[in-house]
Design brief:
About 55% of the residues lie in helices and about 15% in strands.
Length: about 300
Amino acid sequence: MSSAVPRLAVVAAGAMGAAVAKRLTSFGCTVYTNLDGRSEATRKRAQDAGMIDLPLDELVLKSDWILSILPPRDAVSFAGKIQGVAAKHGSSLPSPQTFVNCNAVNPETVKRIAALFAGTGIEFVDAGIIGGPPRGDQNPTFYASAEDVKILDEFTALSKYGLKVSPLKGKDAGVGDASALKMSYAGITKGTTGLYATMVLAAYASSPATADALMRELQISQPILLDRLVKTVPPMLPKAYRWIGEMEEIGDFVGGSEGDVYRGLARVYERIEKSIAGDQEDIATLTKFVEKAKESR
């Protein structure tokens, strides 16, 4: 990789993508994105992050690195679009050029994505982002793995531009390992948040008295769990729609009937998404439980 400041594409300009782009541009990087069909709020985020909107073909032709940061359901289709552009332009592509899948997908999905770029001249890195969007002194960690150690080292070198990259190396390490780590971590963190929401809603469905008793008992015997519930449920609500596909991916990662646990949690997050768009009854129930728990401390 050239010692020149890299040109990167970050798609999409969501909360995480725009924050990552802002961190990169603050270190002098040029960051492209594609805003076709995106909302005014997304366009404003991209502008504030210093991202440059380009047609997809031009974005591919100008970028040394393409970071895919999307809801899991869009990961494969976006990679297919990039592969299509690469096939059309061939030798006109930057060399070297690397596609980095940063989406919460299971190892088999990420291997399917990697296979799209075989023979295209585009290198591939599997990355899992753990942590919230970059803000102030806080940075999420890009855990990364690849078949080519040289490419992995070059991605790790982007740490000099504000990213926090942690490579996975060692015997048998390669594409799929970073995604497996992401699945394992999110299965614990987002899985428990979904479990909290499930049982609060179930308790309220029995009666408000049941829910109040649940809260009191958690305060007495499981204060650490209640504190975690209070901290994680409210910020989950507007992001539930993103976590549906992630739970499905984790279910496939776990496999077998055990994976049904996460498919069930996908339905919980789907229910919460529908509540936000609909009568908001479940949202009100969860918010009420959290507020009561805070007041009774």
